[in-house]
Amino acid sequence: MTDKPKPTNGLTYSQAGVDIDAGNRMVDMIKPLVRSTARPGADAEIGGFGGLFDLKAAGFKDPVLVAANDGVGTKIKIAFLDYFATGKLSPEAAAQVVKGIALGCRQAGCALIGGETAEMPGLYADGDYDLAGFSVGAAERGTLLPRQDVKAGDVVLGLASSGVHSNGYSLVRKIAEVSGLGWDAPAPFDGDRILGEALLEPTRIYVKSVMAVHRGTKAIKALAHITGGGFVDNIPRVLPEGTGAEIDLAAIAVPKVFGWLAKVGGLAQSEMVRTFNCGIGMVIVVAAGEAARVTEAFNLAGETIVTLGRITEAAGEPRVTFTGALAL
After folding, report:
1. Is the pTM of this model over 0.90?
2. Beta carbons within 10 angstroms of residue 37's beta carbon
């Protein structure tokens, strides 16, 4: 005869720090936000074990899928999934984060089709969280950029950024520490906002304007999203071997935030152009004869665009050279 298990006051998952009910409340709070991102091909509902997207319903005939965790590039971002990890889940705080994600998805015409929320007590301090995202895009076969006809003499255009965008914040935080200013102090470069708010100006999302001009003109040869690595590392990624780019830094209307960062941090210009976008969030390569038409199209799409330079022959390094100086 076996002994019957003795009743105990055993531990629960909640006592270990994971609140399933809080997770369910969060899902209920964000469902309207997720639905707001619905687009053809996706119903933007959450709660299942996977997100579905119907490429045929989205109008694609012979699509190539593109997976990315960086940049707009040449693809239409059709679906986005997020991963939110924290030590103790606050449904209200998490819902605010998803609200921002949903806004970005709407700006990009991208459906938020699912995600993962992980409550991991002991790995994150109270109030801290980690956020990651993954997007899947699609393009018709044969329309992918960069094109193979990029050559010396082509014109390099640049779309204005909204600020620091989404990279370089380890250096930004260090400079803020050196400045001695708190995040709630008035921003020295923006009299209307506090420092933390001004530094976190949302990244400009170029998807709709770029796709409109790309489809309307068929003149874009290559696009480079200026993220980590700045001009130096990102422009060569879209250029064929044997070519480079000459960029006139004096052509850039540099936002005041970069002048403040350079001054307080004592940053050399070479450090600026390899760390920050310096005022240009997207670089576009077109044939010289198409530059005026593409510029006009972007102006009509609501973008601020400048002529940055030209494509050159480049047998070796450096593949990106600079003239002029940043107006810091």
Report:
1. no
2. 22
